Each structure stands twice: as structure tokens, then as C-alpha cells.
Input
Amino acid sequence: MIALLKRDLALSVRAGGGFGLALAFFLIVVTLTPFAVGPNSATLSTIAAGILWLGALLSCLLSLDRILALDYEDGALELLATAPIPMEGVATIKALAHWLTTGLPLTLAAPAFGVLLNLPPEGFLWLTISLAIGTPALSVVGTFGAALTVGLKRGGLLLSLIVLPLYVPTLIFGAEVARRGAEGMAFETPLALLAGITLATVALLPFASAAAIRINLR
Amino acid sequence: MSERLPRPTSLWEYANPRRFMAFSGFLLPFVAAGTVAALVIGLVWGFFFTPDDYRQGSTVKIIYIHVPSAMVAINAWLMMLVASLIWLIRRHHVSALAAKAAAPVGATMTLIALATGAIWGQPMWGTWWAWDPRLTSFLVLFLFYLGYMALWAAIENDDTAAELTSVLCIVGSVFAVLSRYALVFWNQGLHQGASLSLDKEENVSDVFYWPLLLCLAGFVGFFVLLILVRTRTEVRARRMRALQARERMT
Output
């Protein structure tokens, strides 16, 4: 499993340009926001936390179809299916590799982008923490969506349509933590719920993803 | 097709496509008659023979479409969940086809509920749309229906499509419930609470209650009718494809 993780990480960093693309997209979303709502810094600072969460979510979406599609095309996924590790393990590792190459960089970059959007100073810590806790759920849910659509020729748009409604709870609680943190309100409840959703998806969804991969390989 | 089938000994025998076709064909006219009767009586009674509400005036009458369509919209997803589970566990093709048939009906009912709600909300709340948890969760439910239908449409192999959509339906159900509670947490609402429960003191008044019940029965009957017709169409379409494939072979 460690070998698979290393391979996936190396592939996404070296080939295909998937790594960094999400970050660039995030930067563009953040840059375009003031053009759309106006440069007024008071307005920006009230919506900064939400925009950063939405931007992170969309950037995450961008690279989802790469999780499994390449391995499906060149047959590596079939080899993995016959490998001694269970398919659930493969799905978990794929999600982890995706998080390490998109979710983690997005989390680390978010405070810097927060400066651009005039995020209140109290908000930085809780924005980073909420993203760190919430983005693993995005990767795991995304892996599930990728597993459903891996057999399709042009599954990219369909993947977004399927995955985005599943992102609703994570987005609500994540943005709520960041917003309340920025405004200095109590944020323990949404934080706990956000963590709960992440843990539950990490624990359960790989089974669904593995089932979907097996169906697609049949 | 014409020879008689032995009497069924278990409910599961209706999963046999031939038996399903025979039984649903027998059932169709009765369901259709009941539906038409309930809808006509319920709607006419509701629209013309109930008094106007003293605060809402005659706009209250939209309740006869709004509440039943909303109820069917939610229960259609529930039915899809049950049908998906049956398909995954017992592999009855009719079950998968029934789930497929239910999705567009459910999506349409969701749209009707949203549209009638907006029309009702405009004079009552002074706005077409509010980010109320009930309204928003219906919008999210509509998105779930869209994703489900798009997945069905995208996959060419019927069995793969049935399997994958079943998995999506189960996962989607969990997330739909999660979203519902997340939305309640997220925003307080304008929409009133439940007022049709069997076990509550405060319900809508009796004048509106009985025609509403008839309309509910009519909408449920309408849903069952549509599902039967659509599932029969799917079964027939599949038979056609099988016949065409056989002709190409010879």
C-alpha cells in the first residue's frame, strides 16, 4: 500500500501536470472574485471565508477524474484488482494520494489567498483548520464519484454533477466554521460535525468506491 | 405469452418480468380509475367547495398541489432506494427498471413542489425564494435526481448502469439526509412545520383536511400509475432490443 501511495504521488507530481493545476485554479477563482463583487474591502472580508471554501472545493473537483481514469485506461486498475491488497485499500490510498496533492496544498495556500480577500485576522487559523479537517472528505467523496464514472469516455461533467450535491454537508459546516471563526463566534458545534462527516466518509465510502470500481472492471 | 402461469406462491415471483407484465397489465385500469376519481373529486372539492382561509385568502388552495407533490417527491426517492437495494441483493431486473422509471417522475414532482411553493410564497412571505432549509433541501434533492438520471443516461451497458446507479442511490440517500440536517443547522426557516401528522393536536382544519387527503391519495395513485406504465415500457424496450439482437444473429 505504501508503494502504491508513492507511485501515485510520483505520477501526479511528475506526469500530467495535475499537481499545481488545482492551486493555480484556486488562485484564479480568488483573483476573479473581486472583479465580480467589487473591490470594496468590507464586502470582501465578509464573504472571504465562504469564497475560499468554495474555491477550494471547485479546485478539488478539477482533478477528480485523474484519480482513476489513467489507471483504468492503461490497465493498471485491473492489475490492482488482482493484487493482494483489497480494493477498499486501493480506493483509500487513491483518495489519500489525491488529498496529499490537492487538499493539503490548498489548505496551506488558503491563508495566503485570504490576505488577497481581506480575511479578518481572527479568521486565518480557523479557516486553515476547517480546510484541513474538511478537505479529506472532499477527496474521499470525489474518489467515489470517480469510481462511478471511470468507465465512461467523457465522464468529467457527469462527475461534477454527481459529486457536487454530495459536497453540500461538508461545505456548509466547513464554511460555517471559517465564518464563525472570522467573526469570533462559537464554532465548536460545526467543527465537531465537520470532523464527524470527514471521519464517517473516510471510514465508509471506500467500500462504496471499491464496489463501484469492481462493477466497472467486470 | 398466452399460456396461463401457475399461481404465485411468494411475493418475489412478481419479479419475473412475464408475471410482472401480466399482473401490472391487470392492475393498470384499476389504478388509473382510482387515480382519476381521487384527483378529480379532491381537486374540485378543494378548489370550489372549501372556504378561503381568513388570512391567506384563496391562495391557500395551492396546498392541494403543493403538499401532495412534495410528498411524492420525497417518497419517490425512498422507493428508488428500496428498489435499488432489492436489485443489489436479489438481482431482479424489474426492480432496477422500476428505480429507473421513478427518477424522472420524482424530479418532476420536486420541480412542481418548488414552483408551486414559489407561487404560494410570493403573496404570503413577499418573496419567491428564501434560503430556508426546507426549500433548499428540495433544491438539493432535485440535484440528486439530476445526477442519478444523468448516470443512467451515460452508461451504455444496462446491467452496469443499474449497479452503479444503485450504489449512487444508496450513498446519495445518506448524503441527502445529512444535507437536510446540515441545512437546518445552517439557517432558520420561514416554512411552517409539519401540519398533517396523525399524532398531533395542531393540524390543518378539517375543512381542508379531507380534500387534501383525497389529493394525496390521487397523487400517490398517479405516481404508482406512472411507475407501472414506465416500467412496462422499459421491459418492452428491453424485449425489443433482445429480439433485434437475435434477428441480427440469424
